[in-house]
Amino acid sequence: MLKKLLTGLFLFVITGFSLLASETEAVSDAKPSISLFAYGELVSTHVWRGGKSGNVPAFEPMLELSRNDFTLGSWAAVTFDGLYRELDLYLTYSVGDFTLGLYDYYCPPAEPGVADFSTFSGPDTYHLYSFDAVYQGSAKLPVKLTASVMMYGMDVDAESGDANFSTYLEAVYVKKWEHWSAGATLGFTTHQGIYANKAAMVHTELNVKRRFNYKEISIPVFAKTIYNPYADKFYLLGGVAFQLSHRWN
Q1: Is the dihedral of CA 116, 122, 126, 130 positive or negative?
Q2: Which band of pLDDT confidence, cut at 50, 70 and 90, is reported for residue 24?
Q3: How far is CA 224 from CA 10, 37, 177, 221, in A?
């Protein structure tokens, strides 16, 4: 079953990029463009793909540097009590409405000296490596679709030691107005892994956002309701963020 799922994911990616081949040629003739995007978020609690980490507020900064269709980025999170920390690095490539990405999630335990960032493999690693394929949505299909597969790292079966290849599928719909937006998210895992012990719906979400602007800085304020049907857990959270971008042509 897992082999069929992975095969289907890659066929989806190949088909999408084949349809966009002509657009790729047009983009390659464009002049290079470099952009910087900075984002910081203060959130009441950290929840990701149906799972909560910590019981106190968290700060979550992000920094991206893009050149044409390539983006190199870093995302981090730390709770105010320091019991949860995360540092992610990623590289993505976009063509048209599609994006491919390689992600390194580093989530060390709270105890000092237990984890070493430079331990990238083996039983002592706290890295997770994923391959993501994303359809960003379009006017005809205004839904963002994500398929994410953990390919390597600490995502292993506790008994056999084999890789779980934990897979997460997500659909996001957002309706935007001038300063407001509202969205809904459904997240599903296909088999036993880091998200659940079986195929299950693990993330459902409704959210609303109001965006304020101060000169070149955008300041979104948001609220979310998240329910994990598999774990039967409900979360209500809110936060405020800032974002700033700049482009060099």
Answers
A1: positive
A2: very low
A3: 32, 24, 18, 11
**Residue ranges of the domains in the chain?**
2-28+37-248
CB 84 within 8 A of CB 75: no
pLDDT tens track for 121-165: 888 899 999 999 999 999 899 999 999 999 999 999 888 889 999
The pLDDT tens digits for 229-248 are 999 999 999 999 999 999 98
Q: Which class in CATH covers the domain with range 2-28+37-248?
A: mainly beta
The phi and psi torsions of 5 (rounded to 5 degrees) equal -65, -45
